[in-house]
Design brief:
Structural class: alpha+beta
Radius of gyration: 20 Å
CATH class of the largest domain: Alpha Beta
CATH architecture of the largest domain: 3-Layer(aba) Sandwich
Strand order of the largest sheet: 4-5-8-7-6-9
Strand content: 15-25%
Largest sheet: 6 strands, antiparallel, barrel
Number of strands: 14
Length: 282
């Protein structure tokens, strides 16, 4: 359903691992509750990775005590198709907790991707006609919300929409174009770049083959933005024994919750090194 962005593991030795993974991870869509394809790519990337019953991708390193957990959420807020009108328009419903009151406004008039059963389908969120609005003051108009969103996929009927592989609850997300900028490309801007770069640091730490003390369970968790952190809670409930320590892998970024959320790739690389040290600590 989503694209695969990962090169072979052998390529990682040829360049900055964390920066490469962070850019690739930031290009992937994983609307909360619809993370399976991102998980599939992680399974292909990480040796000995498995998917648990909750949908988390889990890698177990080492053995014995102490048992520690490093966890990073892979989901993001987004939308699903809420209705398909008779004349081929799609309405949306929001999925996952959001941190910005202006979250919906970032899709107004923008291109989106719908991840249907037959593959990604491009669409655009409609805006009010500039011709019919000419001369009217906008001062009293309420801000755009998800209830105002109508998505055009070039269909003229409900049947045309379904022929594209689109149904109710199909995930929908803003098109992502991760951008590296600053001197030497040291900054990364993309929706959810902070979370994805933290997950890239965890993946890179795993790929570095650390000499783990005891057992480290590294988990890429799902549905963290639901009414509770569903994936992490399920992982902890089903563990054979309580974890001696839980490391919630995270980074700080700027412009959080916007399409240009920005993270320092140097900070992501530093996080990877700290994770390796933590895994190897005695």
């Amino acid at each position: 359903m989503l694209w695969s962005f990962f090169p072979s593991v052998a390529l990682f030795a040829q360049g900055p691992v964390v920066a490469s993974l962070a850019t690739r991870f930031s290009a992937i869509t994983a609307v909360s509750g619809y993370e399976q394809s991102f998980g599939d790519s992680l399974l292909a990337l990480l040796p000995a990775a498995r998917r648990d019953r909750a949908g988390n991708v889990v890698v177990t390193l080492g053995s014995g005590a102490p048992r520690r957990l490093a966890a990073c959420p892979i989901d993001e807020p987004g939308y699903v198709v809420g209705n398909i009108t008779a004349d081929g328009w799609l309405t949306l419903r929001r999925v996952g907790r959001v941190t910005s009151p202006l979250f919906d406004q970032r899709i107004e008039g923008q291109r989106v991707t719908l991840f249907g059963a037959k593959g990604p389908v491009p669409g655009v969120v409609a805006v009010r006609s500039v011709h019919l609005q000419r001369g009217r003051t906008a001062a009293g108009d309420p801000p755009f919300t998800v209830d105002d969103a109508y998505v055009d996929v070039g269909a003229a009927s409900r049947e045309d929409v379904r022929a594209l592989g689109l149904e109710l609850l199909t995930p929908v997300a803003l098109i992502k174009r991760p951008q590296r900028y600053g001197a030497g490309g040291v900054l990364l801007a993309a929706p959810g770049a902070t979370r994805r770069s933290a997950c890239a640091a965890l993946a890179a730490a795993i790929l570095s083959n650390p000499k783990v003390t005891g057992t480290v369970v590294a988990a890429f968790t799902v549905e963290s933005l639901q009414f509770e952190d569903v994936g992490l809670a399920a992982l902890q409930r089903t563990a054979a024994a309580p974890f001696a320590e839980v490391n919630a892998v995270s980074l700080q970024g700027k412009y959080t919750g916007t399409p240009v959320e920005t993270v320092s790739l140097a900070a992501a690389d530093s996080l990877m090194r700290k994770l390796v040290s933590w895994m190897e600590a005695r």
